[in-house]
Fold:
Amino acid sequence: MENVLTIQGLTKNFGRLCAVNNLNLEIQRGQVFGMLGPNGSGKTTTLGMLMGVINPTQGSFSWFGQPPTHHLRKKIGAVLEHPIFYPYLSGRKNLELMCLIKEAPPENVQKVLALVELSGRQDDKYRTYSLGMKQRLAIASALLNDPIVLILDEPTNGLDPMGIAEIRDIIRRIANDGKTIILASHLLDEVQKVCTHFAILRKGNLVHSGPVDDVGKGEESVEVMAYHDDLALMLESFEGTLSMKRETQQFVVKMKPGFHANDINRYLFEKGVTATHLVTQKKSLEKQFLEILAEADHAAPAKN
Amino acid sequence: MLHLLKIDLKKLIDYRTFWVICGLYFITLIAGASSGMELVKWLDRTIEGFGGNINIQRIPIYHFPDIWQNLAWCGGLLKIGLGIMVVISITNEFTYRTIRQNIIDGLSREEFLYSKVLTNVTLSVLSSAGLFIIAVVCGLIYSPEYDFPYGFTGIEFFLAYFLEIFAFLSFALMLGTLINRSGLTIVLLLNSYLIELIIKENVDNYFPGIIPFFPLESIMNLVPMPFARYFLQEIRDYVTLTSVVTALVWTFLFNYFTYLKLKKSDI
Structure:
């Protein structure tokens, strides 16, 4: 697979604060790469360095195997943090200006405006736009020069549920075109829905990186409900139970490797109990994320 | 080159403040430069004994070749208007953070600076050209006789005027880049002559020789005040090489400091 981005030992210090610490990362063509981390974990600083607005303290990175230049940036569509435009220019004029900078064909302006459904408001000044429209214009601007790589930093920040769904839809459509996308977010649900790979940053350190599909591998947890007074005892004595805990109305049974929900079902039925509720819990990215962060906290508690 | 100029002009062309400030500037420049005789007449009416027994109609402020230096000096007084426009243009990029997006979009930091410098050149050229046209028209109207090539003596003051404007706009661009806030920068720009004057007065007692090399002093030195000649005083009615070289060095430094700031800072 072709590497789109290779980061080697990238470090940024702001005075005594280490915002990004010795980051190594590779992103391959066609990946939708999620960058996760709590606020202030160094996501935006990293992206800022990749886009040439923040000078790295140490380390290097290369796009498409070449050292970074401003010409390469023209083929990358990026929106960092919040949308940035000239407030006194209309949406269309803002995009036309970007066309000049990116040396993109001017007819792309109408294409991307249509894509994000802003054609109707294109001649209004940018400062009159709502937050959702600003975000959509930012995505339009990122798509302006038919980019090979798309970088989106918190693209759904501050949007209402409909706006979030719209943006997610746009991202999916772009991903289906085979474009490489780097998506920084703290909305884990978002990342799990659209990303193929993800990395987790914590206080400037990379604490995890891997495919999203790997999330949820490992032991299973099963939720059980049944009308029976001795259900707790029964579940505890089941041979496949690793551990068990009570959650308001239901029991959550952590299974030993090789045991699944159907084994519990058969076991209970043989005992003359029919379950009213039996669900295998899918391990969410959120859970994994919190686990990884907790592990990282545990591993380096003295450092901070 | 032209491409970068187009980028910066695209930012300004739909910006109402730009048109208001530049409009005011050019109207003041044209009206001010062409109404010198009216000013003299007004002074004559208001101040008793103004000009003594001389017929004020015969003061040759608009005659070739006096007109070149006279108008170049007067035009130089108004450059603060353009300076404020340049400050607004650069500090907007910082307050709206559009400089960040420009660079993300693929402009290099050098190219960003060039685009601003090219606009400064354009504004300086427009000022010089506008003032030159007024000088030619007024000269043709008021001069009693056209004695060329003698009439072209001192026309090099228009090149000095161009350099004066461009040097000052470079200074404004530097201040804006270093300070980033429009209000503060404009206040400092307006007060910069005063601040330099205070320093000059203090330096004067010890090293009077270095005073012509002060930045704003060197810009003012390009075109010296000409009107004392009408009161029979000696004036410098030519452009000196030292003043041009000093101003050029400062212009280079202003832009170089801007470059260093842009290069080193995280945007």
